[in-house]
Amino acid sequence: MAIVATNLKRGQCISYKGEIGIVLGLEHRTPGKGNALVMATIRSFNSGKTKDIRFASSDKVDIVQSERQKLDFSYSDQTGYHFMDPSTYDTVTFQEAFIEDSKDLLIDGITVEVLFVDGKPVTIELPSNIELEVTESAPGVKGDTATAATKEAVLQTGLRIQVPLFINPGDRIKVSSEDKKYVGRA
Fold first, then answer.
1. CA torsion 10→1→39→18, rounded to 10°?
2. pTM, to two decimals
3. What is the pLDDT of residues 123-144, one digit of tens each?
4. Residue 8's CB: how many other CB atoms inside 10 A?
5. Please, are residues 116 and 125 in contact by the beta-carbon 8 Å criterion?
6. What are the φ and ψ backbone dihedral angles of 2, each rounded to 5 degrees?
7. For the chain, is the Cβ count within 10 Å smaller at the N or the C terminus?
C-alpha cells in the first residue's frame, strides 16, 4: 500500500530503496521558493542505523504491514529469552541477538512491546523507566555531596551504572531504558 509522503505518521513502517524501517520523526517544511517537503527520520531494521530522508510532498511511500504485540518477560535460558502473551498465554522465544540491547533491563514480569513485520519480530520497546534493585555498591563517604559525585553500582540484572553516593545495596532505583542511566529513586 502506498500513501503520499505528507500522510506519513510516526511509528509507521515503510519500505524505501529496498530497506524496511520505522518512522521515528517527521518535519514538514515549506521553503521560501519551491515545493513543500517532508523530512523523515527513519531507523532501518536491517542495519539499525538512523538516517534522515527527504520526500517531496507528492512522493509516494510504501507502507509495510506491521503489528504491535504486548508481551510479558518470563525467563531466559540457553535456548533464548521467553515471553508470554498475556491474552493467550502462548510463549514466544527470542534469540539473544534480537534482545542484545535490552537484556540488561529485563526483569520477571516486565511488559514490553514487540513490533512484528511480516510475522517476524524487528524491534522490542521497553517502558521508558525500569525499577531495579541495587545489589552491590561501595559505601558513600559522608560530606562528599558538594559535587555531583557518583559511584558504580551493580543492579539485580548484572548491569553496572553510575549512581549518586547516597544509593546503597537494597535500594530500588529507576533506570532509563533509552541510555541505561540512573533517573532517581523508586
1. 110
2. 0.77
3. 899 999 999 999 999 876 666 5
4. 20
5. no
6. -115, 140
7. N
Measured between alpha carbons, how far is 50 from 121 in angstroms, rounded to an integer? Answer: 18
Calculate the average pLDDT of the chain: 88
**What is the CATH class of 66-125?**
mainly beta
- Helical ranges in 10-165 per DSSP H: 96-99
Domain with CATH 2.30.30.30 in the chain: 2-63
Cell numbers for 52: 534522515
Helix (H) or strand (E) holding 52: strand 50-56
According to CATH, the topology of domain 129-185 is OB fold (Dihydrolipoamide Acetyltransferase, E2P) (2.40.50)
3-state SS assignment for residue 72: strand
Domain 2-63 of CATH type 2.30.30.30: yes
- pLDDT confidence of residue 83: 94
What's the one-letter identity of residue 97?
A
Residue written as grid cell 547516597: 166
